[in-house]
Structures are given as structure tokens and as C-alpha cells.
Design goal:
With about 200 residues, the protein is an alpha/beta fold. The chain has one domain: Rossmann fold, CATH 3.40.50. It has 6 helices and 9 strands. The protein has a 5-stranded parallel β-sheet with strand order 6-7-8-3-9, with helices on both faces. It has a 4-stranded antiparallel β-sheet with strand order 2-1-4-5, with no helix packed on it. A hairpin with a 3-residue loop joins strand 1 and strand 2.
Amino acid sequence: MSESEVSGSDIYMQSLVRFEQGKQYMVSAKSGHGKSSLLNFIYGISNAYVGDIAIREDGGVVVLQSSRDFKVRQMSYMFQDLCLFPELTALENVQLKNRLTDFKSESEIESMLMVLLPSEKLNQPVATLSLGQRQRVAAVRSLCQPFRFLLLDEPFSHVDNENAHRMASLVAGEVERQHAGLIVTALDPVDQFEFDKVMNL
């Protein structure tokens, strides 16, 4: 596929795969087989690969690592290690992100968190929350910015099925509102989303 064939706001990995804005993708693989690395390549925080990753922006196709503005403004990433501040509360972790983006109202943030957490947990330090509860906080935080692509790295690994479906409903609603692409990784296929394509590494 030549660069001229790439249209819209797509991520194009030459001779491998193309992720299209507005579609949902599942990437499944065993632990240590490259799921996080793939998302890190797409997000531009690792260049330990051979080949090209390109993004179609309004002005044309550009190499990802030279497009920091695209990454900061138009990609959101829920890291597998979550990257939360343990001394801050669940609410404060999300508010901190939202102060940078001014994307959600205070009531929207609290409403999203209360879908996934008991109300008394919102003002507890993240360090006191279970790993599954922390994942839910990180998921809400990832929705507090504009994005064309949302990357979720094993988002349900410590979340029970009921809360996983609640998380997925929040995510899917925001992805649809922003007409964004969604890329989810997991050890095994998950059924919380209606994926357009499932890939196995």
C-alpha cells in the first residue's frame, strides 16, 4: 500500500496493519509477546522497531515520532502499569489530568467515577485501592481528553466481569462521541466490545 492510499486519520504500519479512526481493534497475545510494545510504538514512546509507522493527519501522512503534537492532542493511552499517583485520591488523579485538557466538567468526572467505584472510594488515596479499582480510575482518566485513538493496555486484567462491562460501556460511549479508533490489548480475547478486527500476535 502506498502513502497515497492512506485516508482519514489512520495509523498505518507498513506491510503489517492499518488502524482506522472510528473502528475498534483487539490485539491478543501471551504475556511478553509484544502487546505493550506495539502500543508504545504507536504512541511514540519507543522506537525499538524496524520499519515505519505513519499517521494520516489533515495535512498528509507523517512519521509518528515526528508528530508529537498529534500524540499529545489526539491520542490517549491507558498504560498497563496505570501510572497513577498513589498519594493522590482517585478523584484527584482524574482531576489532575483534566486540568491539563479542560475537557470534562467536575460533575462529568464524578459521574464517570461513580459508575465504576463506590462513592466512598473517590476520596481515598489510590495506594489504598485494589488493583482492579486502580484500573477503573485509570480508565476514567484516559477519557478526560480529546483523542482520535484510545489505547488500552490490558484494561480488564484485574477487573471482574460486571465492572469490565461497565468500563467498556463508558469507553465505548466516549469513543463513539469522538468518532475515535480504539485499540485494546489482552492476554485472551474479551467480549466487552464489538471489535471490527481481532489480531493475534
